[in-house]
Design goal:
heterodimer; A: Cytochrome C Oxidase, Chain A; Cytochrome C Oxidase, Chain A; 2 domains; globular; B: Helix Hairpins; Four Helix Bundle (Hemerythrin (Met), subunit A); 8 helices; 73% helix
Chain lengths: 526, 289
């Protein structure tokens, strides 16, 4: 045999230095870090685009950008935040924490793990390159609706291929996470004993493997229609543009839960820690996650009530959608019940978690409003929808990611973050985010359409308020970056159990977690 | 050979994945440039990507095979590969599901609606009064001109027979492997590869006939679109399957497998059965009904 497979002694640090360490790494902690840094960069790129959008909407009329460029910003902002910021952040957390939480030495398929990450920078290079092409970036919205999408020029194939790459990365990552959870648990770590974050990711990974291929198939059909003369989406040939909406939302609705189930898992870890009580209704939380995942496959039509479906389909999708409120309600109830009579302290992770519970619930309620077919005919494509999904994705998913970063940063870096600045970041964020998104409900109900750079003058006041909130929210995130840097390079030393109320295997290893952990599996008892 | 290691094998570096990423990037960048109309640069960049991807496959799988032969993989690693393959095939099922879903939606809903079904009476009467909702169809505009579908009981039925037989031969080879009869394994694999290749040749001929005799092309409306995307991607998967079977045949000839440990063989046979089952769906819903 060749020497390349000679087994070296277990190193306690990375085997290579410099850039090659990060390019060739198979270590779940390194790869988790890569995912998290990548996600943070994308968060700021997508955020900069959001700032362009809010600057343009500060006043009616066109001040800064052309309508075409505005549409490009809207499209790229959506694609980058969904596929570049939120999803990689959760995958990064999964990489770092799942092996630590289940007592595994690493992810099950370490080389594949490296590949899943290293596809992503290339995918987003491909997508962002389109900004420099004649005609600019894609401008059909992140949902890539036909026929807009099919009318794109030079950017079209790059957008499609970038999505293919993101899909490959997600499917490979999803397979790896499922296999890790099913096959790498320490002895005694039965499925029902697994931490909720791990459970949430098991179900999320299953959703990823199930729906990303459907999106890949869908964009492939767009490619064929655009360049090879097929008629999937053209009525002239017996196809239908509504087909795209069905394919997209069959992917898209589970995708929404891919972005929120790991958040549920995070909140289910943080709330018990800072309430110093076990999670209320643990088993029901697991069943609620599974029910939400199951329902996510049969509700996609609620995104297209106004696109033209038989009334029976409208009714089916309306009722199935409202059913989701039941398991989601179970979760909200259980988090609140966990806090009930707990010895609660409000460190930054807990503040973000509590804000998550309240603000995500607002987003959930507006979702139930949108699920009602007759009401949706009014709300559809208005700013009400923008308010709804930013409440679930920013004060939901993004707040949960921030909570998780503050919660596990001591474990990753070995240092405590500065609590004062953490709280400053939280309060600035939570106030400004509501100033940013709450007025959008009223704008939408009053009839302001989304994805338009100009608006009627009566919408001016609320748009100004919203834009100011947006600028403050954007600027507040610089504090977040500063805190992360400060914590990586210094700060009070963190103990192995950084939070006194925290339970779980990840708190049994030192902080910072050594390069290799659980080389011999721990015995899980109780 | 094939002594089991004590602990779960963890590689310390991944040399090939970055080349795989560069290859995918280059492949897709080149394809995009080509589609945007640059007929020289595009194929060159794309070709470079293909080379990178092929090198990655050789390097990566080569490493895994060497590690496997050196006995680095214990039973837990074996289970990882099994679960991984199961979920990979599941993702492929969903990929084909998108196209079958497209076929069913277009055929069962869109085409009848264009013909005035349910409450679409006026849509039909005002927009497409001459359109009759029959399957196969190329739509109200008769996209691509008059065409006819492939006769079900010709090549498609023969191809069904070929693929079903290949499922038998690959299973026969697997039984022989478990019983330790190497010559039978080789015979079974050679037969499977031969049947797979025959299938592909027949399908190539079928495409030729479709274009020259039946005027069934990519432009033939929704029938042509669903026909070619389903059979095309299936054909691509058969091609990949034949390549994988060939690799397995070479490994059998080199004596890589024992009656107990031969997951690579099993994984490929799972994949082959999956491709087979997809074909049954195609035969029923694309060619027959």
């Amino acid at each position: 045999m060749t020497e390349s497979i000679a087994l070296p002694a277990e190193p306690h640090h990375a085997t290579r230095g410099g850039l090659m360490r990060w390019i060739t790494t198979t270590n779940h902690k390194d790869i988790g870090t890569l995912y998290l840094i990548f996600s943070l960069i994308m968060f700021f790129i997508g955020g900069a685009m959001a700032m362009v959008i809010r600057a343009e909407l500060y006043q009616p009329g066109l001040q800064f950008v052309t309508p075409a460029f505005y549409n490009q910003m809207v499209t790229l902002h959506g694609l980058i935040m969904v596929f570049g910021a939120v999803m990689p952040a959760f995958v990064g957390l999964a990489n770092w924490m799942i092996p630590l939480m289940i007592g595994a030495p690493d992810m099950a398929l370490p080389r594949l793990n490296n590949w899943s990450f290293w596809i992503l920078p290339f995918a987003f290079t491909l997508l962002l390159l389109t900004l420099f092409l004649p005609g600019g970036a894609p401008e059909g919205g992140w949902t890539l609706y036909v026929p807009y999408s099919l009318e794109l020029g030079y950017s079209f194939p790059f957008m499609i291929f970038a999505i293919h790459l993101m899909g490959i990365s997600s499917v490979l990552g999803g397979i790896n996470i499922i296999v890790t959870i099913l096959n790498m648990r320490a002895p005694g770590m039965t499925l029902m004993k697994m931490p909720l974050f791990v459970w949430a990711w098991l179900i999320t990974a299953y959703l990823l493997v199930a729906v990303m291929p459907v999106l890949a198939g869908g964009v492939t059909m767009q490619l064929l229609d655009h360049y090879f003369g097929t008629h999937f989406f053209s009525v002239a040939g017996g196809g239908s543009p509504v087909l795209w909406e069905h394919v997209f939302w069959f992917f898209g609705h589970p995708e929404v839960y891919i972005m929120i189930l790991p958040a549920f898992g995070i909140i289910s870890e943080i709330v018990p820690t800072f309430s110093r009580k076990p999670l209320f209704g643990r088993t029901s939380m697991i069943y609620a996650l599974a029910s939400i995942a199951f329902l996510s496959f049969i509700v996609w039509g609620h995104h297209m009530f106004t696109s033209g479906m038989p009334v029976s389909a409208d009714l089916f999708f309306m009722f199935s959608t409202m059913l989701i409120a039941v398991p989601t309600g179970v979760k909200i109830f259980n988090w609140v019940a966990t806090m009930w009579r707990g010895a609660i302290t409000f460190e930054t992770p807990m503040l973000f978690a509590v804000a998550f519970i309240i603000l995500f619930t607002i987003g959930g309620f507006s979702g139930v409003m949108l699920a009602l077919v007759p009401a949706d005919f009014q709300y559809h494509n208005s700013y009400f929808v923008v308010a709804h999904f930013h409440y679930v994705l920013v004060t939901g998913a993004v707040f949960a990611i921030m909570a998780a970063v503050y919660y596990w940063l001591p474990k990753w870096t070995g240092h405590m973050y500065n609590e004062f600045w953490g709280k400053m970041h939280f309060w600035l964020s939570v106030i400004s985010v509501n100033v940013l998104y709450f007025p959008m409900h009223f704008l939408g109900l009053a009839g302001m359409p989304r994805r338009v750079p100009d608006y009627a003058v009566q919408f001016t006041d609320l748009n100004m308020v919203s834009s100011i909130g947006g600028f403050v929210f954007g600027a507040s995130q610089l504090i977040f970056v500063a805190i992360i840097f400060a914590t990586v390079y210094g700060g009070r030393r963190a103990e192995a159990r950084a939070w006194e109320g925290a339970h779980g295997l990840e708190w049994t290893v030192p902080s910072p977690a050594p390069y290799h952990t659980f080389a011999t599996p721990p015995e899980v008892v109780g | 050979m094939n002594v089991s290691a004590d602990s779960y094998y963890l590689p310390h570096e991944s040399r090939w994945s970055i080349l795989g990423s560069i290859g995918l990037f280059s492949f897709m960048l080149g394809a995009g440039i080509w589609l945007d109309g640059y007929n020289l640069v595009g194929p060159l960049v794309m070709g470079a990507g293909v080379l990178c991807i092929i090198s990655t496959k050789f390097g990566w799988f080569g490493t895994v095979i060497r590690e496997s032969l050196a006995g680095r993989y214990n039973l837990q690693v074996d289970r990882t590969f099994r679960w991984g393959m199961i979920f990979f095939i599941f993702s492929e099922v969903m990929f084909f599901g998108a196209f079958f879903g497209t076929l069913f939606y277009e055929r069962l809903f869109v085409v009848p609606w264009l013909g005035g079904a349910t409450n679409m009476f006026f849509t039909h009467a005002l927009l497409y009064p001459h359109y009759r909702a029959l399957w196969p169809t190329n739509g109200p505009a008769h996209a691509g001109g008059e065409f006819s579908r492939m006769p079900t009981w010709g090549i498609p039925a023969l191809n069904t027979l070929i693929l079903l037989s290949s499922a038998v031969t690959v299973t026969w080879a697997h039984w022989a492997l478990k019983a330790g009869h190497r010559r039978k394994v080789v015979a079974g694999l050679v037969a499977t590869i031969a049947l797979g290749t025959t299938f592909l040749a027949m399908q190539a001929h079928e495409y030729y006939l479709a274009y020259t005799h039946f005027n069934l092309t990519l432009h033939s409306g929704i029938y042509g679109a669903t026909f070619f995307i389903l059979t095309g991607f299936h054909g691509l998967h058969v091609t990949i399957g034949v390549i994988m079977l060939t690799v397995i045949l070479i490994r059998v000839l080199r004596g890589h497998f024992t009656p107990e440990r031969h997951f690579a063989f099993e994984a490929v046979s799972w994949y082959w059965h999956f491709v087979d089952i997809v074909w049954l769906g195609l035969f029923i819903f694309v060619y027959w009904l």
